Amino acid sequence: MPKKETELELSQRVERIRAAIASLESQKAEMESNELIAPVGCSIARYQARGQKYRYWYYQLKAQTAIFAKTKGENEYSRFQHLGKAGSQAHIDGVLAVVRRNQIDELTRAIESLKESWLDLYCDEEKVGHRVE
Description:
Layout: H1 7-34, E1 43-50, E2 55-62, E3 68-69, E4 77-78, E5 80-84, H2 89-132
Antiparallel strand pairs: 1-2, 2-5, 3-4
Helix pairs in contact: 1-2
């Protein structure tokens, strides 16, 4: 017969999960409030343009759907936002914005996982309580 977990052990596990969730939520809130963040599902794409003599590499922020306002025409949107040459400020800002988006998405997944774990603690406790009775 398995050992019955004490109330103290359960409350300690609950507190560890709660503290981890609070820490991750704090990190996520700080990232969301202070920095430029790419829209969900965006990535950096590299493309080549040809001049008369040379080929040039440029970068763009690429979305899954048309979300970037076009400079020409009202209410027209594109899947791409031009960032310019490698090392330009727009290029670096775009890369960092995508990295931040990925970090926020990962923090969100971790928070949700911990919330499920927290619920599991109480589901397990109910099962144990019913078996003992």
